[in-house]
Specification:
The chain is of the alpha+beta class. It contains 4 helices and 7 strands. Strands 1-6-7-2-5-4-3 form a 7-stranded antiparallel β-sheet.
């Protein structure tokens, strides 16, 4: 498994409760662009439309800008490939107030591009401060142990 990109803000802004893995419906040029690292998950989210899940606002610029077709939209919604049972269980879990679907990372698995996303609950400001404090303390302990 090779991680292609990661949404670092997801673990900072959200408390991830459960993770899922899904395939993506992509164009050939998008696959090439993603494998070369030209992708951004910042500000993206997973949306539910007509009992299907879509990755929305993920930025995938064209692989070769001069060879791309005219109406290419680099932030278009991309369909996620999941089983019907997984989708129905996700729909049931999303009905709980305050839960959302957040993309965590894009990676390759047996030459297929997969998206890991999670059911998340937004963190409050006080929780974020506690996470920053914990990270700083761990960093200081690591520095003191090393030398």
């Amino acid at each position: 498994m090779k991680v292609l990109t990661e949404n670092r803000k997801s673990t900072y802004n959200y408390e991830i409760l459960e993770t899922y893995e899904a395939g993506l419906v992509l164009l050939g040029s998008e696959v090439k662009a993603i494998k070369t690292g030209h992708v951004s998950l910042t500000g993206s989210f997973v949306a539910l439309k007509n009992k299907e899940l879509f990755l929305t606002n993920a930025l995938i610029p064209p692989y070769q800008p001069q060879n791309i077709f005219v109406d290419y939209n680099q932030s278009r919604p991309r369909k996620l490939l999941l089983n019907k049972s997984e989708i129905s269980s996700l729909i049931g879990k999303l009905k709980v107030k305050g839960l959302t679907l957040v993309p965590i990372r894009l990676y390759t698995k047996k030459n297929r591009i997969k998206l890991e996303f999670g059911i998340a609950r937004g963190k409050r400001k006080i929780d974020k401060r506690a996470a920053i404090k914990k990270r700083d303390v761990e960093r200081d302990i690591g520095r003191k142990l090393r030398g």
